[in-house]
Amino acid sequence: MVWIAFRGTCHSVVARVTPLQEVIEFEHLDSICTWISLRRCPVRIKPSTAIRQDYTGFADLCHSIDEPVVLTRNGEADLVVMSYEAYERAEARVKLQARLITADRQAGHGEALLESASVFDRLRSRVDGAEA
After folding, report:
1. Are 5 and 16 in contact (CB under 8 A)?
2. pLDDT digits over 31-63, tens only?
3. What is the pairing mode between strands 13-17 and 76-81?
4. Confidence band for 67, pLDDT divided at 50, 70 and 90
């Protein structure tokens, strides 16, 4: 799985390949497209009949590969299906990315930053409160 995060402006982009924990920095968006096309990231493509004919097998596939599966209809991409756990992780990544972008913008505009000790103290108090 590859996810791409913008760092700073749109001209500096970082791509992280999760299985290898590989980080690659790109200068332009065109470079990313070239890298992805050369890398040929595997995408699972199945006909829509795969669900109707063998739902259990299809669900097992989605859970085992833990990435989206593209379903086709009449030979054209129609839907993307993934396990609920993979969906939750993808949603969490999107939310985290949005927060990081917001924090990056705030830091870039000179807003006051928090001391790490106070942040960790607040986190510990939340965790301790949740355990009670």
Report:
1. yes
2. 555 555 555 556 788 999 999 999 999 999 999
3. unpaired
4. confident
Global model pTM greater than 0.70: no
Distance CA 10, CA 51 (A): 39
Is residue 68 within 8 Å of residue 45, measured between CB atoms?
no
